[in-house]
Amino acid sequence: MALSDLKKKCLQSNKPAFTADEFIEDANNYALGLPRIVSLRKQLPEEDDSTRLPMRHATFTLSEEAIAALNDLSELTGEAKSKLIRRLILRATQVVQLELSHLPGSKNKTGSD
């Protein structure tokens, strides 16, 4: 047996090749919930890169029931829990604003009334 027989044989990969810089940039994107290389998850049509704002860490206290529900929702959707919380907050804000705008005598807080 020759030493060349002991060499690890390279297998063809279906994954696209990427540089170290691309991988590092994608790690930053992953932290923002927008991975491009390391994730197989496809970006949804309603997700727009141009509308993303800088993120800040926040700490919240949740009940065990809320944590379990959030875990279940994350597993069902395949989305990060922090992203789900952001989406739920935005949706709740929209619902409350819509309800308030339909109250008689209410003024729109944005000043566009």
Walk me through the topology:
Layout: H1 20-31, H2 64-77, H3 81-101
Organism: Arsukibacterium indicum
Protein name: Replication protein RepA
Total number of helical segments? 3
- Structural Rg: 23 Å
Number of strands: 0
Mean pLDDT: 76
Molecular structure report:
The chain is elongated. The mean pLDDT is 76. It is mainly alpha-helical. The protein has three helices and no strands. The longest helix is centred in the last third of the chain and has 21 residues.
Keywords:
mainly alpha; 113 residues; elongated
Question: What is the gist of this entry?
Answer:
The chain has helices at residues 20-31, 64-77, 81-101.
